[in-house]
Design a protein that fits this description.
The chain is 39% helix and 39% strand. By secondary structure, the protein is α+β, with helices and mostly antiparallel strands.
Length: 147
């Protein structure tokens, strides 16, 4: 019986190691995606921001019905960049599935758009999936904090 238990443990160990490697790689890639988001926002590059999203993204904005596609992100990031807005995200929680096929990123956002009289904080939640060219945001839900 001990041999069976040992063999079972040895056969599971490579799978666990692979899962840890996938998760570590995903964490690194997802942190890089957040860094790209912040760099693109800092350089007012709406196209780069929108490129982080999947074509069929679910866009869940505060006080509005859910929308699907890139129109929601495009409208927001065009507004932000055209008005020299400063937006930064931090990652507060990051969850990656064991097989690295799904991730959830939750964090804080700071947004300052002086021309619109906006200086606010909020919370965002991204659901992400890997695609051929890296992780893509497939759901974006956010809200502003009240004063």
């Amino acid at each position: 019986m001990k041999k069976i238990t040992l063999l079972a443990a040895l056969s599971i160990a490579p799978g666990l190691a692979l899962a840890e490697t996938l998760a570590d790689s995903a964490l690194s890639s997802l942190t890089a995606l957040n860094n790209t988001f912040n760099a693109s926002a800092a350089s007012s590059d709406a196209d780069a921001l929108v490129s982080l999203y999947a074509e069929d993204t679910l866009w869940i904005a505060q006080g509005a019905p859910v929308r699907q596609g890139l129109a929601g992100p495009r409208e927001l990031f065009d507004f932000v960049t055209e008005n020299a807005g400063k937006v930064t995200h931090t990652i507060d929680h990051l969850f990656v599935s064991e097989d690295a096929t799904l991730a959830v990123m939750i964090g804080s956002v700071e947004a300052v758009i002086e021309t619109a009289g906006m200086d606010t904080t909020g919370t965002y939640l991204f659901v992400l999936q890997p695609e051929d060219d890296g992780w893509k945001i497939v759901t974006d839900m956010w809200h502003q904090h009240t004063e």
